[in-house]
Amino acid sequence: MKISAAIDNLKDQTEADLREALACSKASNKALVARETPGKHCIVDFLFARIPGDIIDVLNERAPLADAENMETGPITLGELIRKTGSLGKTIKRVDYSRYVLKRIWSEEKADYLAELLFLLQQVKAVILESRDISSGSSPKHQEYCTLCWRLVNKYRLVNYENSLISSSLYCCVHHPKGVEKVHKRAVRRLTTASKSRNTEFDIWVQEALASGKTPRATKANLRSRLKFSFADLPSPSIKGPLFQPVETWHERRDQILSLAAECYPETSKCISGISGTNWESWFLGVIRQLDKSGIAKIKVKLSGEELAKFSRLENQDFENWESSDDFKLVRNEPSVESTYDSDLTGWSVLLAIFHRHEAVCNIEEMPRRRRNNVKVK
Question: Distance between CA 296 and CA 283 in Å, rounded?
Fold first, then answer.
């Protein structure tokens, strides 16, 4: 069989198998997993596409793994390939390395087959993640924070999706592509420019993945989120130490958080100084409102006319999302006055996660960029 026909067979069979696996997951309300797990469906059992024997030979010769069993000569199914290699992750690495080697020795046809196989293995991984949402019932788990900033994703209107064009499991209402498109594109452009300016190995890897036409949209959003997160440093264990000790009042914990912010997140610390509150909930929401307000103010100066009017309606949306979301139940239930505060209340770690993302966005905005005449600007 010609390689082109083998690629078509692989693609058609695997896509049909994945649809069948998802349908089974929905019907039984059980998640798909890559390994045998009680109470769940192993996706390997659904993958029946035949991998040609000469491709198996390549995988044995070009990318032997010390902890993986070499496949016998002859065609095997995609499911058998994953099982014999040891895991889905190891299979992806094995195929990717073999594809890289074949491209260097000019074996284009087999490299093309392995490229398609690699893409389908990534699809298998995506289907596994999708099935987790199915099995979680009516409250699917989405990415919590916006791909491009620190705000919550605007997921709380997904129930009535047809009534809201800015509902999303990837973006807040400020950065949604169907909100003010100019704001979304500018944030993506600034992140890309900052990444290229920094130009670490991680940046290069992410930019290559983002440039690939085969990378799914949701995966690109996740990569941009990881890239954004990398533009701020995490606090050292010694700095976070006091947060793991019990305190008597929420004021003590607030002061510890503010002290950490001043040391690790200076731009965020400037933004939230002077916020008052009568309890943890009111102070938390005050911080959310102030961060949102300062960020929106910086964006509004670059808008005018209809865009500005449309954008102005988005003010306080993050505050409202936090105030009304189920997530806030995790941080609003304070212990009784008589007891000491837990050493790691979810609310404090959530706030640090927000601070980290806000600081990363500030750092990205401060990264120098070049205009076409090669002059650096801020």
Answer: 20
